[in-house]
Amino acid sequence: MLDKLSVRITRRMVVTCGVLGGNFLAAIEATIIAAAMPTVVTQLGGLTQYSWVFAAYLLAATVTVPLWGKLSDLYGRRLFYVGAVGFFLLGSVLCGLAWSMPVLVVFRLVQGIGAGGILPLGMTILGDLYTMRERGRIQGLFSGVWGIASIAGPLVGGYLTDSLSWRWVFFVNVPFAFVAALAVGNALVSPRQSSRPRIDYLGAALLSGTVTLLLLALGQTAGGQGVAWGRLATLLGGALTLWVAFIHVERRAADPLIPFELFGDRVIGPAMLSGFLVGVAMFGAISFVPLFVQAALGGSAIDAGSALTPLLLGWVLMSIVTGRVLMKVGYRRMVFAGLSCVSFGFFQLSQIDIGASLWMIRVVLAIMGVGMGMTILTLILAVQNAVPHNQLGIATSLGHFTRSVGGAIGVATMGAIVVVSLPAGGDASPQQLTAALQQVFMFGAFVAGFAVISSFWFPKGLPQERLPAGATSPVASGTGETAHGI
Length: 486
Prior knowledge:
This protein folds into three domains: 1-189, MFS general substrate transporter like domains (Growth Hormone, Chain: A); 200-254; 261-467, MFS general substrate transporter like domains (Growth Hormone, Chain: A), CATH 1.20.1250.20. 78% of the residues lie in helices and 0% in strands. It has helices spanning 2-44, 50-75, 77-96, 101-129, 132-163, 168-171, 173-187, 201-220, 229-250, 268-297, 301-306, 309-329, 331-351, 358-386, 392-421, 430-454, 481-484. Helix 4 (101-129) crosses helix 15 and helix 13 runs antiparallel to helix 16 (430-454).
């Protein structure tokens, strides 16, 4: 009996290491390419496709998140996690072999499809493997690996580009992908399905179309005076039409892609709303703080590139702490405290003017990072602890999905604020650009402030794990064979 228990624990450790490796892989790819892109454009040309190298990846990753989650609930985590890593691996190799910018954009779509599954399915697998009280610690470690990879990405990307070639920015993913796929594929056992699952193909197509049109519409706002308003209206109208059709189909589907009753849950509903709002604020900070450092403080490119390090470090450290204390504090208090830090940080950024100390911004960003670490991890755990095991994949993926969509809307809205705030025609002065960015951060403070209010919709008290009627804990004692598939 002891030997069997030891084998199960060892297999769980192998799967955990594989998932953390996949997390590192997806996280570092989000930042490593930025340092290589100027060289890529120089060698491949196609400056006009520059933004699409990033947009294609984001589009594919966002659209596919709910699909990966639902399919993993239906057919098991192992098959689709390994499949997601396989897509990412194939996309990475193809990107490294790209011979033109349009081709690179297409291959980034393939890579993004894989990325859409790696992060949410990784979080879901960890939710399968560990009990409610263990999840905080392990999800904190998951966030820590993500933060380290995000910080290391630009440095590794710059080194590989200068020392070898920009193509190695993609090829470096190959060994990590193999290790992650082998570890999870060999050690994780998916339970057999008692009945044949039914896939909501129409719902999946409608949701994919909705998100695609929405993201394309949001991309139009980056064009400033060049926005094609007719095309923007068409894209938004199409997205709204498909969304209405999606809701109609889902309410009648035997096994819907997104169970809308989840949003009525007293924990999941507030968690999704808070996640959407914090996504708006989070991606806005990441996108505009480096520009603010150069415009308001006259910092160098190195200063701008390293400006987010305090935010990421605060995020990582507080995620680890939050994972250990959440069960003693409760969702409402943790989310309230975290979002208050984020809102305070945005407000302070909106007050910083030309000539301020770079250290002042670093301190403010560290406070925001602490708030992000408290909030994001709490929202992930709140959703995972509130659903039965057979909905863990779609619930976790929906949380990731709402943050991603919120981020896309946030970046587009903040970009539009900058465009509207600057004088028409001609270059803006540092003072004008600083004033525009102050408006951006005031908007972030407003959004985060509304998110603070939403934290009061979380129930009082300490978290309680919910299970289907008559079920026992799927990971009882950390050794239950059925639950964690070990």
